[in-house]
């Protein structure tokens, strides 16, 4: 049985002042739930404030939205996995569609970023997803399996078994369009198949979460789908009350 995972991606929203107010509102309404994992991915500049707001609470974890491939050095403007871990992050989003399609991140860089995360004790949340034209051309599986295999190429099998995978169709991110639960389920099953080829039966324990215009209205049906083990949410996590509602989504299969 995989514990559902709820991941909030604040994107480039909520600097330190807003983050402080947000976390006060969220922690006041969210009591620890043993049956699920909640992860916040604030902008790197707000990680310290979020960690401070969490205090001794261990039921909520923090991730960084992106890391650079190296641990330190002359890379102005970048955040390393080593620094994110030092700030309290336990997870790292890698290969988010905005990194790939807005900032031109290559699959080779994605692989090195996963390796940097693992090297510094962070769990990678590897994001994969197809463009609309690729879906329409029927190449979704080929695209996402390539992103998955290539993204995990530089890490060992133990780290693959401990990773989180996020299926995020690019056409669904921030657009109000969502994959149907059945379509998401089909892609997730293919992803799990590819994980099985790499790590055998341990693939059954790897959470594969869905992202793309998830909100309070569609979260339950998506989470009910087979092989959908959680949700990665952008726009709808920006309000603490909305996010608490989504984190409380009933997680029953079938
Ligand atoms: C995301 O940023 O990963 C995402 C899924 O965004 P949204 O929920 O806004 O589509």
Explain this structure.
This protein has helices at residues 16-29, 47-54, 81-87, 97-101, 107-119, 132-136, 140-151, 157-162, 181-199, 219-224, 240-247, and strands spanning 5-9, 37-41, 60-64, 91-94, 123-128, 164-167, 208-211, 230-233. By secondary structure, it is of the alpha/beta class. The chain has a single domain, classed as Aldolase class I (TIM Barrel, Alpha-Beta Barrel), CATH 3.20.20.70. Strands 1-2-3-4-5-6-7-8 form an eight-stranded parallel barrel, surrounded by six helices. Helix 1 runs parallel beside helix 2, helix 1 packs across helix 11 (240-247) and helix 7 crosses helix 9. The longest helix is centred in the last third of the chain and has 19 residues, at 181-199. It is globular and about 45 Å long. The relative contact order is 0.15. The mean pLDDT is 97. Residues 9, 11, 168, 173-174, 211-214, 232-236 line the site of phosphoenolpyruvate (PEP). The site of phosphoenolpyruvate has 14 residues, from strand 8.
């Amino acid at each position: 049985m995989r514990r559902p995972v709820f991941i909030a991606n604040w994107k480039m929203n909520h600097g330190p002042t807003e983050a402080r107010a947000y976390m006060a509102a969220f922690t006041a309404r969210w009591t620890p739930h043993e049956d699920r994992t909640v992860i916040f991915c604030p902008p790197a500049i707000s990680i310290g404030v979020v960690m401070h707001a969490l205090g001794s609470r261990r039921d909520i974890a923090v991730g960084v939205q992106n890391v650079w491939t190296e641990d330190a050095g002359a890379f102005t403007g970048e955040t390393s996995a080593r620094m994110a871990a030092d700030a309290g992050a336990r997870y790292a989003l890698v290969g988010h569609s905005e990194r790939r399609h807005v900032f031109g991140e290559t699959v080779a860089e994605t692989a090195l970023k996963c390796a940097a995360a693992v090297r510094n004790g962070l769990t990678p949340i590897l994001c994969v997803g197809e463009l609309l034209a690729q879906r329409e051309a029927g190449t979704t599986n080929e695209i996402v399996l390539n992103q998955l295999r290539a993204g995990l190429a530089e890490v060992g099998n133990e780290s693959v078994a401990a990773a989180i995978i996020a299926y995020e169709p690019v056409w669904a991110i921030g657009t109000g369009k969502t994959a149907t639960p059945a379509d998401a389920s089909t892609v997730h099953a293919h992803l799990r198949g590819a994980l099985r080829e790499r790590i055998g039966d341990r693939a059954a324990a790897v959470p594969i979460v869905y992202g793309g215009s998830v909100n309070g209205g569609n979260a339950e049906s998506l989470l009910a789908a087979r092989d959908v083990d959680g949700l990665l949410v952008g726009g709808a996590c920006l309000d603490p009350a909305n996010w608490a509602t989504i984190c409380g989504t009933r997680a029953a299969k079938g």
